[in-house]
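Notes from the 1:1 (GR / supervisor)

We went over the backlog. Supervisor wanted to see one worked example end to end before approving the batch request, so GR pasted a single chain during the call. The sequence is below; no edits were made to it. Supervisor asked that the structure be written out right there so they could see what the output format looks like.
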Amino acid sequence: MSAPVSRVALFSAVAIVLASLLGLALAETALRLADYPRASFSPWIRSEHLGFRLAPNLKTRMSGPEYDVAVETDSMGFRDDEIGSKTRTRILLLGDSFAMGYGVARGEIFADRIERDLGADVVDAATGGYEIVHQVQLLEEYGKSLTPDLVLYALYLGNDLAWNDQWRRGDDGSLRSLVREYPLRQPREIKLLSLLRGFVYGVRSKSKEKDGEWLPFEGYLGLCERELAEEARKDYSEATALLGEMAAQVRELGVPFFVVLVPYRSMVEPEARASLKKKIPDLDSRYDLTRPAREMDARLTGLGIDHADSTQFLGEHGGLGGSGLYFPIDGHLTPEGHRVMAEFLEPLLEKRLARAADL
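Structure output shown during the call:
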């Protein structure tokens, strides 16, 4: 009797497994047909010279708890309209996800606002994930062919300063990551796993009042220490050297170079600073959140690079439009933040473009 019973148990187990697999397959098929949840935002492809870049002619969406916006790129892989022949003053905008406009629709990004308000052609070459080392490579590849009248770099006072050492430039001009493999685009994503990740994220965000909030991590805060560690000193030195390279490249183009310092949320919004202080009780004694701006102001001045710090302006104008300047969870500028950034930049850019036209 034991053998038949064993076979029945085996067949039952196999049947359960097959039924479960079939159920999962049907569920995955249904989720794919409904396109739910949407695929993770992963628009990058491998580039030998730049390390990675946005895929050209891309049409996708960037979705999160705080936004759902379309992201499209032109044939060069820029989040911009197709670049035609030059018919008016042209500004080349360099930067990372802040200037690219994470979570913000086209037309609301500060690049688009400046283009509309100043009547200039703003080429938004900013790419999420780029550090200063990428800007050097991008200027080398596109600076001359894009024929800008001014190069504007939106320098984020966080990872733009801290993560340049994650990349190595080869003698052949290539750029390689020391910490991850590229490309990052995933042509297929299992919907059931995405659903599970979303569920886990939801549980975690509810388990503690501020779990979902973006706060600067140790790598960022290291730049703010009152007594800088060796790693932070190296980060500042490397950032300074790379900015010097950028300035030399722009001088070769014969146009003005202007750097705007973009602060992170805890440097601007009081509620973000209060949340950070709850997590780090000795925040004020260990860190000075104004240090990255002051440090880079001094270093840019030493290099003779024209620049402006938007921190105070953002702090004074935050909330006047009825909403915050930063997404609390994501940490990037909101549409209101982009509006205020454009308001800060436009008179500064007008003055520099007029000065350049008189030369």
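Supervisor's comment: The chain has two domains: 1-34, 88-358.
Batch request approved.
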